[in-house]
Structures are given as structure tokens and as C-alpha cells.
Design a protein that fits this description.
Elements lengths: L1 H21 E4 L3 E7 L2 E6 L2 E4 L5 E8 L2 E5 L3 E4 L5 E12 L2 H6 L4 H17 L4 H6 L1 H16 L4 E12 L2 H85 L3 H15 L13 H10 L34 H18 L1 H13 L24
Antiparallel strand pairs: 1-4, 2-3, 2-5, 6-8, 7-8, 8-9
Helix pairs in contact: 3-5, 7-8, 9-10
Length: about 375
């Protein structure tokens, strides 16, 4: 019994091993290389596959997806004998699993060495400035060479990128100084251009301001001159109307010789007023003014003897009419003479006697004015 159980267990174990050797599961985007007795038998696709146990063997499992490989920095000498470190990144994909398995032992290492040699060849014909600014041309050159060389290995290089180009530290310092100087130069140029534009705009603004100020001054002077002219015209018209009003008032008042002489004497003390008046010159007309107070025969130059009404100045319908004042001493004598002439015309006999008296009667002078009393002395009756 025990032997039977052992045999049964061995049989089950053999079946399990047989199934494991017969059934092969290949993941998606993978390809299995099957060898029979060390010779290529076939390629297993993704999924469940059946092989002959103990005869067929799954040798390699190839990844068919696009792979990314980053290579460490490698020193490269440029045309101007400068050593730069360049690290690259390769994007490739296996298109033929059989060629990738049997045409080359390690295709990743082969791609790395091919990339380094091709990169040295391309960068060796460029100087440092061109190397730093020609990444696209370097990438295109690398991709063309690698794609042509790896085609027989069943590999397609999709893309090549330069991850970094590091020049020596001394070159970095020089480049930084050059870049800093160039930026400072552009900053100085931009500052100078800004100052130039600001100066131009300031000058244009000052010019426009001066033009506007000049135009404003001209208009203000014109308006001020017009205002002064109109003010002068109105002032002259006002003075003319004032003179006409005063002249009309003098004519309406009918001043006589005595009143004007008295006013002339009243103005004399005002002439002597003031602390600066050291010498008082008495005009020669003062004697005539004194004589005019006692008699109306003499007259001051420019003042009429008879206070007869003058021609009235027409000031317009809106001018107020002043009442005529009563006559002075001379006008009373004239009125008495007129009354005597009228009575004589009624009686011829008495008129013949009275006419010589009326004609020969002298005109009595105006009563003298007493300066101390401020009034006129009552006139005496005329002598017969």
C-alpha cells in the first residue's frame, strides 16, 4: 500500500511538471523565443501557448514596447579643443525579436557605445558656441546614424535627446561674465534710449506749453486792452456828463460876482493847509476879489458882470429841471427900472419926467459882504 501511494504521488508530481513545461503564458507586448534542442523553433505571441515539454524551451522573453535608456555623461572634445560632458537619452523599440536575440548579444550596450562614438564624431566638428546652440542638428545626426546601424539588430531608434552639455568651470565663468556684460550693455542702451525719448517728450511738452502760454498771454493782453479802451471810453463819457451836469447846475443857479468872489476867498485858507507849505504866495486876483465884495463894477477875469440867464444845455428829457433862484441886488435894480417904465407908459406926463431918471440912474453895486458876519449888508436907497 505504501508503495502504491508513493507511486501515485510521483505520478501526480510528474503530471504537474509536465503541465508546467507544456503550458507557457506570454504577457501582452512581449514575445517569447522558443528553442528546440538549442535551435530557434518559433516565437510565442502574447497569451496562452503550448510547447513540447522537455524538448522546446522558452529562451528569451523580448519586450516590444518603446524603451528609454539614459546614458551617463561622456567627455567630448569640441573643435576649439574644449572638453564638454554630454549625457544623452535614447528612445528605441524592438521591431524584430529574432534579430534582437540572435544578431547581437546586448543591444542596449551596443546602442550606448554607438551613441558615444557618433556623438564624438559630430561634436568634434563644432566649436563650443555651435555645440551649445545646435542641439537639434546633433539630435538629428545621432538618430540617423543609430537608426541605420541598429536596423539589422531589429531595433528602431525613435528619438535621441541631449540631456545636458556641461562645459568646464572656467568656461562657465567666462560665459557668465560675457552674458552679464551683454545684459548690462543692453540695459545701458535701453536706459539711454529711454532717457532720449523722455528728453524728446519733455522738450515737446515744454514747446507746446510755451506756445499755449504765449497764445494765452496774447489773448489776455488783447482782452485787457479792449477792457481798458472800453473803460477809458466810459470814464470819458462819465466825466463829460459830470462836466455838463456841473456846467448846467452853474447856469441854473445864475451865480453873481459877489458869490463867486466870496467862494474864491474861502478857498484861500485851503491852499495854505499842509505841513509842507512853508511859503504862501498870494495871487494878484485877491485884491480884485476884495473889491468885488464892495462893488459889482469891477469883475474878476473870466466871471461875467451880469448874472443873466444863459443858454441851457440840453441834457435829455430825463434831466431834472432845477427852479430858478431869485435875483440878486443888481437884478432888483433892473426889475425896478422895468416897473418904472411900465408906469410911465400909462401916464405920458409922468413918463417924460421919469424916463431920464430911469436912463441916467446908475446901477447900484451889490451890497458888500462882511467877512466876519458872513452875510450881506443891507443896501442903502439910491441917491436922488
Amino acid at each position: 500500500m505504501e508503495i502504491a501511494l508513493i507511486l501515485l504521488a510521483l505520478l501526480v508530481l510528474f503530471v504537474i511538471v509536465l503541465l508546467a513545461k507544456t503550458v507557457r503564458i506570454v504577457p501582452q507586448a512581449r514575445a517569447g523565443i522558443v528553442e528546440r534542442f538549442g535551435k530557434y523553433k518559433g516565437t510565442l505571441p502574447a497569451g496562452l501557448n503550448i510547447v513540447v515539454p522537455f524538448i522546446d524551451r522558452l529562451r528569451y522573453l523580448i519586450d516590444l514596447r518603446e524603451q528609454v535608456v539614459s546614458f551617463p555623461p561622456q567627455p567630448v572634445i569640441t573643435e576649439d579643443n574644449l572638453v564638454v560632458s554630454i549625457d544623452t537619452v535614447i528612445y528605441f523599440q524592438v521591431t524584430d525579436p529574432i534579430a534582437a536575440t540572435y544578431e547581437i548579444a546586448n543591444y542596449i550596450q551596443a546602442i550606448e557605445q554607438l551613441t558615444m562614438t557618433t556623438l564624438r564624431n559630430i561634436v568634434g566638428g563644432m566649436d563650443l558656441e555651435e555645440t551649445l546652440t545646435s542641439r537639434d542638428s546633433i539630435n538629428s545626426g545621432l538618430r540617423g546614424v543609430l537608426d541605420e546601424a541598429t536596423g539589422k539588430w531589429g531595433i528602431r531608434v525613435n528619438r535621441v535627446e541631449l540631456k545636458g552639455i556641461d562645459p568646464p568651470p572656467s568656461i562657465k565663468d567666462s560665459m557668465e561674465k560675457q552674458m552679464r556684460a551683454d545684459r548690462e550693455k543692453r540695459a545701458v542702451i535701453l536706459t539711454a534710449e529711454g532717457q532720449r525719448q523722455a528728453a524728446i517728450l519733455t522738450a515737446e511738452g515744454s514747446k507746446q506749453s510755451q506756445i499755449l502760454n504765449a497764445e494765452g498771454d496774447r489773448e489776455s493782453q488783447i482782452l485787457r486792452a479792449q477792457a481798458d479802451r472800453e473803460a477809458s471810453i466810459l470814464r470819458a463819457q462819465g466825466e463829460g456828463q459830470a462836466i455838463q451836469t456841473v456846467f448846467q447846475a452853474i447856469h441854473d443857479g445864475q451865480p453873481d460876482q459877489s458869490l463867486l468872489a466870496y467862494q474864491y476867498l474861502q478857498m484861500m485858507p485851503k491852499i495854505a493847509e499842509g505841513s509842507a507849505n512853508k511859503v504862501w504866495v498870494i495871487p494878484s486876483e485877491i485884491t480884485k476879489a476884495m473889491e468885488g465884495l464892495g462893488s459889482s463894477i469891477h469883475e474878476i477875469a473870466g466871471i461875467p458882470k451880469d448874472a443873466t440867464p444863459r443858454t441851457r444845455v440840453d441834457m435829455g428829457p430825463s434831466e431834472a429841471q432845477l427852479p430858478k433862484p431869485s435875483g440878486s441886488g443888481t437884478s432888483k435894480v433892473v426889475e425896478e427900472a422895468i416897473a418904472a417904465a411900465e408906469s410911465a407908459s400909462q401916464t405920458p406926463t409922468s413918463a417924460a419926467k421919469a424916463e431920464p431918471a430911469a436912463v441916467d440912474a446908475p446901477v447900484e453895486p451889490a451890497p458888500p459882504v462882511d467877512p466876519t458876519a458872513g452875510g450881506a449888508i443891507t443896501p442903502e436907497p439910491p441917491a436922488e
